[in-house]
Every structure is written in C-alpha cells, then in structure tokens.
Amino acid sequence: MKATEVPEIAGAYLFEPTPYADERGFFCRTFDADVVRSVGLDPDAFVQDSLSRSVRGVLRGLHLRSGAGEAKLVRCSYGRIFDVVVDLRPDSPTYLGRAFFELSDETQVTLYIPAGCAHGFQALTETADTSYRIDRPHDPAEDVTIAFDDPELAIPWPLPVTSMSQRDREAPSLAEVLKQREK
C-alpha cells in the first residue's frame, strides 16, 4: 500500500492498495496502520465505521461537521462513485481548494479527508457502497450541509441527480455557511 498526497487539499491523502490477483479474484489490504502512521496520521484515532449504499445518480453531500470537525477515510467498496472534497479550513494553504476523484471497487483506493473539509459524492453505478471510518463519534447537532450545486463551487457532477435527502436539497450556499462560521 502506498500513500499519495492530494495537492489540491493540504493534508489529504490517497491510500492505494496493492492487489494480489489470481484466477479466484483479488485480495488487498484496505487499511494499514503503519502506512497511515508514515504520513503523520494516528491510525488509532478512528473510532467509528459506517457504510452507505446508494443507487446510480444518488448524491450525498456536501457535508462537514462544525466544532472540531471530523477527519475520515472514505472508500467505495462496491461500485463506483464520483467523490468531492472542498477545503474549508481558513488557515489552510489550500483554502477553498476542490478535488475530485473516482473511487471504485476495482481499485479499493481510500481517501483521507482532513477535519474541516466538506465531502460529498455521487453514485455512478446501479449500486455503490461507500465505507467511512471517522475519527470521532457522530453528533447530528454538528452536521453542516452545503448546497451541492453552489455556483461558487461549480462542481462538475457527472450525472443528473436522481435522489438526495431533504437536508441536502435544502442546504444553504457556501457563502451562507461561511458567514455562519464567522459568528
């Protein structure tokens, strides 16, 4: 497994496994504490794993947490997703930077998203399972959502949106969220 920095988002990494393939299929390690530690992250900091299943066109996000934020490892364990990260850390050298990825079950690449970054994705296949490993227990009172179609972000979502949560549909603009964070 190797770790690669994401230039558009300071502190973000892609963890790329080394699959071992044969006539049965493949095997790969999707988490390696030593590799995580090698880039300065604490592998023991992750305390909760979650899984979402989405159908083609479903959009989830853009989400982040207020307060201390939430760092996470994200991987598409089945299917393919278009994954988006937006850096909303005012002191970051990549503040307001955006990065786009296609994560899939074929590569099993894991994306590390630092606390303070917004995250969202769209399912590209009929079924897409997305695994999350987060560094603190979820508290719904800290949930923040940003409009997926905010023109300031101009995210090139690859498919028409077939479904999204009510919360995501009614999300405020990036400018409104940033204004609220200043208070």
From TrEMBL:
Q: Which PANTHER family match?
A: DTDP-6-DEOXY-D-GLUCOSE-3,5 EPIMERASE, THYMIDINE DIPHOSPHO-4-KETO-RHAMNOSE 3,5-EPIMERASE
One GO MF term: dTDP-4-dehydrorhamnose 3,5-epimerase activity
Q: How does it assemble?
A: Homodimer.
Identify one Gene Ontology CC term for this UniProt entry: cytosol
GO BP: any one term:
dTDP-rhamnose biosynthetic process
Q: What class of enzyme is it?
A: isomerase
Quote the function comment for this protein.
Catalyzes the epimerization of the C3' and C5'positions of dTDP-6-deoxy-D-xylo-4-hexulose, forming dTDP-6-deoxy-L-lyxo-4-hexulose.
Q: Which UniProt keywords apply?
A: Isomerase
Which residues carry out catalysis?
63, 132
Catalytic activity, EC? 5.1.3.13
Pathway given for this chain reads: Carbohydrate biosynthesis; dTDP-L-rhamnose biosynthesis
Which chemical reaction does it catalyze?
dTDP-4-dehydro-6-deoxy-alpha-D-glucose = dTDP-4-dehydro-beta-L-rhamnose
Q: Which Pfam families match?
A: dTDP_sugar_isom
Is Isomerase included in the keywords of this UniProt record? yes
Q: Which SUPFAM superfamilies match?
A: RmlC-like cupins
Specify the domain of life of the species encoding this protein: Bacteria
Give the species.
Streptomyces flaveus
Give the family from UniProt: Belongs to the dTDP-4-dehydrorhamnose 3,5-epimerase family.
Which parts of this chain are annotated as the region Disordered?
A: 164-183
**Protein name listed in UniProt:** dTDP-4-dehydrorhamnose 3,5-epimerase
